[in-house]
Specification:
CATH architecture of chain B: 3-Layer(aba) Sandwich
Distance between the termini of chain B: 71 Å
Number of domains of chain A: 2
Strand order of the largest sheet of chain B: 1-10-9-4-5-6-2-3
Largest sheet of chain A: none
CATH superfamily of chain B: Glutaredoxin
Radius of gyration of chain A: 21 Å
Strand content of chain B: 15-25%
Oligomer: heterodimer
CATH class of chain B: Alpha Beta
Number of helices of chain B: 7
Strand content of chain A: under 5%
Number of strands of chain A: 0
């Protein structure tokens, strides 16, 4: 399982990087679809897959820098904010043009989008519904609006791409926004189902409240029996 | 369940820091939120700080070579410049017709001693003197007002386009797409202003106030 995830993370990272190097670079230079609707999402997916594949072993690493980063990311707030800023930046037509023309900007694009994917994955579990809703409600309509605008406008937004290429990229962006919304909805449904299961188990056992240790990770949370005072909080969360 | 407020302080500080950095990056990339496209950015940068254009050798429809800086300086005129490739069947037609209107206005208002027009081909391999002369006939260019030129050395193409900020993108069917605009150039060879194709009147009043 872990090996499969690690190789998926490695492969997607390598594929996204290869698209920025010759000979495949001509694809992203000539087609906005390859640049904006293939390479950019692939970078975020690769970063997220890296987060999934290192999973528990990442949590076990006790580097001071990492624990400092974790202490700055309660409820996944900073991670979501980073993802939002990075994705907004790379949706700008000027940024896309610069990444085509300037190698240094392209390198920054590779690094920041990959990191944004990783940050989103690391922040996914700790983030409560409100944080998810806020950021999904911001990022997805932004993508959808830009996609619809690009698909319908007669004005070239990027000097680096033809109008036809921009319109195709706009349609692809609309599809991505839809796919991301469905993924988000599915994750919500799964989480709320789990929260219901947890609260049922709590009612059945009616165990005396024991001093709970601070829990980390999915497995720990699932088996947790919550004290009565915390049951409602768990239900509220999802 | 709620964390102690002091434990959340680093998170709030980090989130705020990320937001500030993100906004700063967005402001940097868009010239303070004014230009979201490269084309808008190019136009506002030129309007704020004129660009000194490099020297090139150009060739006209008769095959005569001349220095571009020599041309800018000749007669102390301000020039309105556009870029085409003469095989173009799409945007350059619009460009050609807005240049034609401009020529008509220059003649009608008697501005010919003060304002000149230059069309430069960015496709010197295909656009030799014969193609330039055919294009000039097609758009009815009056040689006293409007010159149609190409680069004498095709190797200069990249530098010419970069100096004006033009990006030429190959399109299907052997066509090109490029950011088309009207460029106002001073007799000293400075790029002063970039205006849209539909802003011919403004270009003219800027060139001959």
């Amino acid at each position: 399982m872990r090996a499969w995830q690690a190789s998926a993370a490695g492969l997607s990272t390598a594929a996204a990087l290869t698209l920025s190097l010759p000979p495949l670079r001509s694809l992203i230079e000539q087609s906005m679809v390859w640049h904006m609707a293939v390479q950019m999402p692939l970078l975020m997916v690769a970063g997220a897959l890296f987060g999934v594949s290192c999973g528990a072993s990442c949590e076990a690493i006790r580097l001071p820098a990492l624990s400092w980063l974790r202490s700055c990311n309660h409820y996944g707030l900073s991670g979501f904010m980073l993802t939002l800023c990075v994705s907004a930046f790379w949706m700008l037509p000027t940024s896309i043009d610069r990444a085509v023309v300037l190698p240094a900007v392209d390198a920054a694009k590779l690094a920041t989008l990959w990191l944004a994917g990783l940050a989103l994955q690391r922040s996914w579990q700790p983030a409560p519904a409100a944080v998810h809703l806020f950021f999904a409600g911001f990022a997805l309509p932004m993508m959808l609006w830009l996609g619809l605008y690009m698909a319908s406008a007669d004005l070239r937004l990027c000097n680096a791409y033809t109008l036809a290429s921009q319109q195709q990229a706009g349609q692809a962006l609309v599809l991505w926004a839809g796919a991301a919304a469905m993924f988000w909805a599915a994750a919500w449904a799964r989480r709320s189902a789990r929260a219901v299961a947890v609260s049922r188990r709590v009612t059945v056992h009616a165990a005396p409240p024991s001093p709970t240790t601070p829990h980390r990770g999915r497995a720990g949370r699932r088996r947790q029996t919550l004290p009565a005072s915390q049951r409602s909080a768990a239900r509220q969360k999802w | 369940m709620a964390e102690a407020p002091t434990k959340l302080l680093p998170t709030f500080a980090a989130t705020l820091g990320v937001l500030m950095l993100g906004l700063a990056a967005l402001a940097w990339a868009t010239d303070g939120g004014r230009s979201f496209t490269t084309e808008a950015l190019r136009r506002s940068q030129v309007a704020r700080a004129p660009v000194v254009l490099p020297e090139f050798t150009v060739v006209d429809g008769l095959g005569q070579k001349q220095s571009l800086h020599g041309l800018w300086a000749a007669g102390g005129k301000v020039w309105i410049v556009d870029f085409v490739y003469t095989r173009c069947t799409t945007l350059c037609l619009a460009l050609g017709s807005s240049m034609q209107q401009l020529q008509a206005q220059i003649v009608a208002q008697g501005l010919a001693p003060r304002v000149g027009m230059v069309t430069i081909s960015f496709d010197p391999e295909h656009d030799g003197p014969a193609a330039l002369a055919a294009y000039a006939r097609r758009v009815k260019a009056n040689p006293a007002v409007w010159q149609v030129l190409s680069l004498a050395r095709p190797a200069d193409r990249r530098q010419l386009l970069d100096s004006f900020g033009i990006m030429v993108v190959p399109a299907p069917g052997g066509e090109f797409e490029h950011n088309a605009a009207l460029h106002v150039v001073s007799p000293q060879g400075q790029l002063l202003r970039i205006l849209g194709l539909d802003e011919g009147a403004q270009a003219l009043s800027f060139a001959a106030p």
